[in-house]
Amino acid sequence: MVIGALDIAIDVWKRRGVQILTATRHGVLGSSHLAAVTASQLHPANRDEASLSINDCGLVIGDQLIASRTLKDWSITNGQTYIITSIDTDRKTVRLDSLSKPIPWRLVQFFQFTHSLTVHRHQMIGDPRSVAIIVLDNRSDFLMTREWLYTALSFATERCLIVGYRPALEQCLSSSARSGRDCALLPYLQSI
Fold first, then answer.
1. Residue closest to 19 by CA, chosen among 148, 117, 112, 162
2. Nearest-5° angle of CA 43, CA 47, CA 53?
3. Residue 68 belongs to what domain range?
């Protein structure tokens, strides 16, 4: 179901207008797996030549990556986003936009594509997108509150697609991290 939505939005995606948002990084509907699936659809690794890849997804100049670990020796901070500005296959290095020197290929394992992120991680970036695809996983219901959903919705500037299990949506709408707080989100979503 998610992949079909991605196929429709592929042109917008290439302009960095689409963001998949999840509650967790783990599992089939987690941000790590969905980012890898999305990246493999956008640009699969070329197996005929030595190419740089993350989870068998080829990297190309212009890709946005997010660090999943702090690497002090390289001035890389967990949660920081970087854009690939060059790939040197002879030296096996990658240059990222805000780093003074290229990094070796072996460090690419500490990055993930930004095509799919958790809502929490996307908050760190604070980058609104034209289209947000919010994935509701029925195994992450303790993370998905009304506030979580509202935050996820706020990242979409034009359109929002909610994909997942109806009970997960109902759980989101009925749970709140703060008691006694009302907003217009609940009646609005129940009406559509």
1. 117
2. 55
3. 2-191
The one-letter amino acid code at 183 reads: C
pTM score, two decimals?
A: 0.70
| β-strand partners of 95 | 86
Phi, psi dihedral angles at 38 (to 5 degrees): -65, -45
- DSSP code, position 5: H
> How, if at all, do strands 53-54 and 156-164 pair?
unpaired
Cα 31 to Cα 23: distance, rounded to the nearest angstrom: 8
More reliable by pLDDT, 41 or 189: 41
CATH at residue 30? 3.40.50.300
The strand order across the sheet containing 129-136 reads: 116-118, 18-22, 129-136, 156-164
Closest CA to 171 of 23, 30, 5: 23
Query: What is the domain count for the chain?
Result: 1
Sign of CA dihedral 124, 172, 178, 132: positive
Q: Let me know: does 96 contact 85? Beta carbons within 8 Å.
A: yes
- Residue bearing tokens 């070329």: 46
pLDDT at 1: 41
- Tell me how far apart the 2 most distant CA atoms of the chain are, in Å: 61
